[in-house]
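This section describes the prediction task in plain terms. A model, or a person checking by hand, is given the sequence of a single protein chain and must write out its three-dimensional structure as a string of tokens. No templates, partner chains or ligands are provided. The sample shown here is typical of the held-out split.
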Amino acid sequence: MRPSGLSVQSRRGYSVPSGSTDPAAKAKQEIEEAVFSQDVVNELPVDVHTQFFRVDGTSAKLSVLTHVSIGGMRFRKQEGRSLNKLTMITVLFDTNGQYVTSQEKTVEMRLRAATLARYSQSGITMKTVFDVKPGTYLVREVVRDAEGAQLSGLSRTVEIPY
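The expected answer:
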């Protein structure tokens, strides 16, 4: 039996938002979304450079240098130190946009005042090395800090000739 005067409406594409209140789970989800996005996000000042050299006719080493300026980042003070954690994920995609490989690095910062002042001027540079075959790759770099929950994501194309 159907009650009179009632109707049902629906829409396509509805999804329930993930209601996770766990900061680590939320951070992981934000990073994953940024990795597979093509958008440039600039909440943190990040710059990426690539270098490669041929090992032999069928393989090469690809170095990805990621520079993060920490001058504007928020830090938590504890026992006379400035604390923060950077999560850096470097991902390689092929010319068809297919995932090839990735590496994740975590930088735990427990900086004294003098060290914070020095790194605020110079920034931090991390190097990630991949063994690859010659070809064209899209390098996607995503960096997120824990204290300010700031995230940056950018992409670079690198061609390693045959």
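For orientation: Residues 23-35 form the longest helix (13 residues).
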